[in-house]
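Technical note accompanying the year-one report. For the benefit of new consortium partners, we illustrate the data format agreed upon in the data management plan: each record pairs a sequence with a structure-token string. No post-processing was applied to the example shown here.
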Amino acid sequence: MKNAEPFRRAVHLLYPIALAYYFIPPDSLIGVPREYLVVVVVAGFIAFEAYRLTRKVEIPMIRHYEKRRAGAYAFGIVGIGLGLIFFPMPITIVAVCGMAWIDPLCHVTKKGALYPAVPLIAYYFLALALLLVFSNYGAAFAAALAVVGTVSAIAAERPSLKMIDDDFTMVIVPLLVLGAIDLLF
């Protein structure tokens, strides 16, 4: 739906709200590990998607091609949930904010000469700033990680996959690549 585009972009920009997870105490104030809360939220979105797909429920923000597969928002939530539970905080923050704020920029610039240069530059500076603020990495290592994260995220966004949304790939690919580097060094 064309008129739902502003709503979809707003949802995109709000994905980093999930990063409030890092402010929840480890026992979540209700006596269960905070990871359980992530699992419950992700399971809720998956259950809703299963219901939507089996009952053919129409919601305004779903694009035509998402009518027979999970919606972009569900893919995004799954990627974010995996990041929150399994990856280091600085890397997850970069992957989530990068997907949330740079993916819409990719879509806006894709039809012109500004793609992929503008998204690459924007992602790099966003990643570098976030790594410098939220990690213990030195400036040189943060800069190197920002380059690798940028290239992996924009490369993951570029292909148009039929069954997997770039809201997932733009989170999970940088998480896997940066997570592997983090483990090695």
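Partners are asked to follow this layout when depositing records. The helical segments are 5-14, 34-55, 72-86, 89-109, 117-134, 139-157, 166-184.
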